[in-house]
Amino acid sequence: MWPLYLPLVIPALAGIAARPLAARLEPRHASWLLTIAAVALAACSMAALALLAAYAAAQAPFLASAGGYSAQVIRHGDPIPVAVGAAAALALTGGAVAVAVMFRNRARALAESYRRAAGLRPEDGIVVVPGPGIEAYALPGMPGRIVVSGRLLDCLDDRRRAALIAHEQAHLASRHHLFAAATRLAAAANPLLIPVLRAVDYTLERWADEHAAAVTSDRKLVARTIGQVALLAGTARRRPAGLALGIVRPGTSRVSLAWAGPVPRRVAALLTAPPRRQMLLLTVCALIVLSAVVAALLAAGDLHALIELAQGAH
Amino acid sequence: MGGEDPGQTEGRPASVERRAAGALEAEIRAILHEADRPLTPGEVRERLTQRHPGGPPSSGEAPADGPRGELSYSTVVTIVSRLHAKGLLARQRAGRGFTYTPVDDASLAASRMSQVLGSECDHDAVLSRFVSGLSSRDARLLRELLAGDTDPAGDGPGPAGELG
Fold this sequence. Notes:
By secondary structure, chain A is mainly alpha-helical. Chain A has helices at 2-24, 27-58, 61-67, 71-77, 82-118, 150-155, 158-173, 176-189, 194-216, 219-233, 262-271, 279-313; strands at 126-129, 136-139, 145-149. Helices cover 72% and strands 4% of the residues of chain A. Chain B has helices at residues 13-34, 41-51, 73-85, 105-120, 136-150; strands at 89-94, 97-102, 128-129. Chain B has a two-stranded antiparallel ribbon with strand order 1-2. The longest helix of chain B is centred in the first third of the chain and has 22 residues, at 13-34.
């Protein structure tokens, strides 16, 4: 029965490993690995839940007579209690609804973003918005737009402006919004993957930071720009606490990077040596994800074989 | 057929006043668009009276509270402040007061959009922000990191990192 449970255990492992991996791996590799892993693991865990529910349902006598197989054989060869099957069916339904809602929201937001981006006329590649806010973001579209508040631009010198714009251009050119959307769908299907979603948000920022560092060929410039903008923006805009699921902040007063938010970690990463490629670690992670896929396929094969056996006995 | 426009109902002071204020807002925006530099409310008032030597542009009574037929300075200040609050004008501090410039349509669309996207969903997934929020301890840590960075030798990982 292990192939049925492995796809349910590995997402939990992924949730634990996501943040350390995001810190170690080269940001572009990390983004790809974690995004593909999130989608694959979400699909596998949904499949495993479906199989658990199917095993339990297959014991029902009326299904057996309709399908022309022996419910006795299924019951004999199948150690999965009906309660577990029912719980799996419930979780599967919840996940499917969550994915549908998330998909609709993402599609709407992206459509809105594309529509608005098409209406913007940038000057020198950026759209400057008025108002007192400290605001800079990339707006996906065809083509995407970089939007910066006038007040923020006034605060930055030319080199820091170049760093900021290079960062936002990397988001648009590499279509980071698609990575973000894919991991959100995966986390909607399986909430154990929420830490992976947070890790991908972080590695996408790091990817853009490293791009800006390469364009300006000055890592410290990018670090200082991020620091300046973050401190200007102040503590007004905080992430909702509910999103930091699974992260318990210790009550110590000493500041340590281990529990820091994404901005200090990005700055710290830029102030140290550029990240190295870690092909071995990458391969090991890919193999673990692959094992979940193989396990789900094996479990599906097992169920198929059992039904055939039961049909033969009928 | 010409005289029966249903919009021309008499005896509606509130709607007349609103229309007059709207016309004045439009006029002030037009003046700022034509101007080649930011204007103070006083300059806006000057140009308004140049446009209409006989009095204020529309219907006279509601917005005019100065000497007969003239817009008062405070009326103009009220209107430009209202336009600024709506996000239709940008303002810069100049001495004790402000000067005003029009906001172009693209910027308007952009600022409205960030409000729309912000209210509808967690827009972090759509808008890639340059920096996310900063908790107070993050801010402290950030200051420490950047302070250490100004010292060129000070950003090593610590004594253990320097053995090789």
